[in-house]
Design a protein that fits this description.
single chain; mainly alpha; 9 helices; globular
Amino acid sequence: MKRVFAIIAVLMFGAIFLGVVGGYSERKTRSPLAEYYLTQVPRELGAPNVVTGILITYRGFDTLGEVAVLFMVAASVGVLLASKSGENAQGTNATRFDERQPSELVRTGAEVILPLIFLFGAYVIMNGHLSAGGGFQGGAVVASGTMLLMLASSPTELNHGFLSVTESLAGVLYVSIGILGIVFADGFLDSHILPLGTFGTLLSAGAIPVISALLGIKVGAELSVVIDRFRH
C-alpha cells in the first residue's frame, strides 16, 4: 500500500508540474514593477546591480530576516553537533585525522587554489553593487574555501570563539547601519547615509558596499562554523 500511495503522489506532482509548464509563456515585455526598479535603482541608489540594490535597501527587512534565520540554523547545528566529551573527543578526532591524511594532490591543489578562492570571495562581496554577486554569494564562496582547507589539512581546527565574535559584530554593525538610516535618511537600511559617489565605481552606491561586506563576513563565518561542526 505504501508503494501505491507513493506512486499516486508522484503522479499527482507530475500532473501539477505539467500544468505549470504547459501554462507557461515567456513574457515579451517588462512588467511595470520591473521597469520601475530598473530605472529607479540606478537613479536613487547609484547601484548598477539592481538585484543587490533591491535586496539590501528596498527589501532590507527581508534580508535582516534571512540573516537571522541563518544565525539560528548555525546556532542549532552548534548545539546539536557540539562535542560532549571535551578533551577525549578532541583526542579521538586527532587520531581519526591522523589515520586519514589527505592525498598529496589535494594538499598541493589547495595551496594553489585556496588564495584564489578567498580572493574571489572578497571580490564578489565588494563588487556586489556593480556586478553579479553580493554578501550572501561572496560569504558562501569564502565558506567553500574553508571547506577545502579542512579537506586539505585535516587537523585544522577553526577558532569558533573568533568566528562567533566576528559574526556577532557584523550583525550588530548591520543593524546599526539600518538604524542610522532611520535617523539620518528616510528609513531602515537607507543607503543614503553615505554619499552615492560616482556611478559605476567601487566607492559608490552609498552604504550598500558596506552592508554587503558585513553580510559577507557574517555569512562566511556562520557557514564555516556549520561546515566544521559537521566534520566532527
